[in-house]
Design goal:
This protein has 230 residues and is an alpha+beta fold. The protein is 20% helix and 24% strand.
Length: 230
């Protein structure tokens, strides 16, 4: 081959080699531009949460308090100031011989078993002490009960008030239903019958207002304490 031709062939070979190399580089760059961006390992970064600025922490559930126990309403009573004045004017006698006003205690509002109120006063006295009629009246009922033991109900002359004597050891001679009583008359004797504790000798004395003598045990209670100590 001539030297001039050989040189020309060599130049052409180098030219085409450069063209091929340039084309290959162009294709590679183009393929990278269309490829997905480098992936990031999400698990390698801690997840970050953003709480809204006005968000509030979740409140703990509050267990509602139980409703308060219902308060029992005060029982309605038909007793008026006029009733109290009437009994006060009768000047009741302390119904146990030998007991004076300074020895009495107001137990009218004290609680008793089964949610009951006492509605009476207990007059502590020796066993067998004479029980006296607190005022004039009549024997309405002689009765023995589980709670009161040997009892006597006296009806006021007005027919509106009942005087109740309980826990008696026994009745005085001649006491019977319908008997007319005089203030201070012996009607029975202090004992511990009924639900009184054995040996706790006392008179349970109560006053009530009734709308009928036939309801001798179901009247509206009246506190005897201020009426016996005034």
């Amino acid at each position: 081959m001539r030297p001039g031709v050989k040189k020309t062939v060599l130049i052409l070979a180098v030219f085409w080699a450069c063209v091929v190399i340039a084309a290959a580089v162009t294709v590679r760059i183009t393929s990278r531009s269309h490829a997905s961006p480098t992936s990031v390992n999400v698990e390698s970064r801690p997840e970050k949460t953003t709480q809204p600025s006005d968000a509030r922490p979740t409140a703990r559930p509050v267990t509602p308090s139980p409703p308060p126990d219902p308060v029992a309403p005060e029982p309605t009573s038909s007793v008026t100031d006029a009733d109290i004045k009437y009994i006060a004017d009768r000047k009741l006698l302390i119904p146990v011989a030998g007991i004076n006003a300074s020895q009495l205690h107001d137990t009218f509002s004290q609680s008793r078993s089964e949610g009951r109120r006492h509605d009476a006063i207990d007059i502590i006295a020796p066993q067998g002490a004479a029980v006296l009629a607190a005022t004039d009246g009549s024997v309405l009922k002689l009765f023995r009960s589980d709670r009161g033991g040997i009892t006597l109900y006296e009806l006021d002359p007005s027919g509106k008030y009942v005087y109740y004597y309980a826990h008696l050891m026994g009745y005085a001679d001649g006491v019977n239903e319908g008997k007319q009583l005089r203030r201070g008359e012996v009607i029975g004797y202090v004992g511990d019958t009924g639900n009184a504790a054995p040996g706790q000798f006392h008179l349970h004395f109560a006053i009530s207002k009734t709308d009928s003598p036939r309801k001798w045990s179901r009247g509206d209670p009246i506190n005897p304490f201020p009426l016996l100590t005034r």
